[in-house]
Amino acid sequence: MKTFVDIGPLFAVLSTRDHQVVYGRRGTGKTHALLYVTEQAKKIRDIAVYIDLRYIGSSGGIYGDANYSLAQRATRLLLDVLGSVHGELLEIALSLDLDLSRVGPALDKLAAAITELEVLGVTTRETENQSSSEATTGNSASVTFSKVPAASIGWNESEKKTEEQRTHYTEKGTLRYRVHFGSVSSALKNLVSIIKPAHLVIVLDEWSSLPLELQPYLADLIRRALFPVQGITVKIAAIEQRTLFKLGGGSDYTGIEVGADASADVDLDDYMVFDNNEARAVEFFQELVFKHYASELVDGKPEFDTSKKLIQAAFTQTNAFEDFVKSAEGVPRDAFNVLSLAAQRGMNDKISIPTIRVAARTWYQRDKEGAIKSNENAQALLHWIIDQVIAHRKARAFLLPVNSRHPIVDSLFDARLLHIIKKGLSGQEKAGVRYDAYKLDYGCYVDLLATKAAPLSLYGDSEDTASAVIVPTDDYRAIRRAILDLNTFEARVNKKALNNGMI
Known about the structure:
By secondary structure, the protein is α/β, with parallel strands linked by helices. It has 4 domains: 10-116 and 181-271, Rossmann fold; 119-175, no CATH class; 273-370, Orthogonal Bundle (Helicase, Ruva Protein, domain 3), CATH 1.10.8; 375-499, no CATH class. The protein contains 17 helices and 12 strands. The strands form 4 sheets. A 5-stranded parallel β-sheet has the order 2-5-6-1-9, sandwiched between helices. The two termini are 55 Å apart. The model is unreliable at 117-121 and 462-476 (pLDDT under 50).
């Protein structure tokens, strides 16, 4: 964990004892951050369990198999997750030399709670009667002549009777696993009471890799069985656009109510996107590059002992490094790919702005744009947004109403072609109407930066500067100019389909 960069209050927020959902797109460092949290928890003698939800279970794809009922799939998922937690706890108990005379029975109780079985079907009762009898009857008479005459008469009668009755039950049906939340919670309470004063931290990574329809059921198990136990903290890493924590409304719901049951005060995009906070983004990536450089040193003293000296030696000027940070769009994984391409292109020379821009364009075409090649609608929407925002408005960002969730927009966001830079913008002329601000990826306009077609500002307002993320709430005209009307795009698509005879 030598490469972890703590920027602002990030680690302080992540290390609280509150149950948390940590949001962030792929490649933003959710896994890295939470692994660092688990390592730090172990250093203070807490018990930390890390579960990668991509690798749980061995059910042969039952989670995504439509041939199984939703109840079967959800139950199997819950059991596999609990089984993984139990397995990790057992390994930790053995490695830390805990008192197995106490911890062992507690883990056995947890294992029993997650392996309960029941038969779903009918029960029949069968009764069998069996009886038999035996009787014997006889008589005899005899006379004996001797000196003294004698006579005898005998009578013999016997009867044997046997009766037997057998009753047995037959269960016919399907053997089914079940999860009893109360039993699981009770077993965990018992375990936590034994390991005190240590705290149990459970990290569930890659939540969004689970089938969307199953997520609320696993969330419900967590809320009912884990959240109520004092001494347990749960951290969940998820991609917001691929997450469904709750089904139903009001007080009768299934799953987790984010904000009430668990906080969602950590979104890694808020920390690292350049347009959210230029200084913080530059500082973060400067330290990130330096820590990776230092971690690769095996022996000897590093040539550069500070991040500032390293950046000065690697880049031609400060603006070149800032351009590199812009190209990353807050995603460390993309940053290192762009940096690798730039270093290969520059060879032994310092990295310049043109080199960064060529590398960024190459990475954009290779990875980001390539991710939507098979989605014709996503490509069409991206090109339409580029035309509307950059060509017509000379802008880099646009607004969409918060409640206008669009699946294609979500797919572009997930592919890191669009980036959210601000949520909940409002205009005074329309009370209660709020907007999310989206920014086009750096690769969408990098070729235009040295031309007359280059975007002039974030929202296309001549008074707007590159760092002005928040549209003034007292100037609704600025908001109105930046709003993108997706209905226009939908009408265009429908018209095209109609002309082609598709509808």
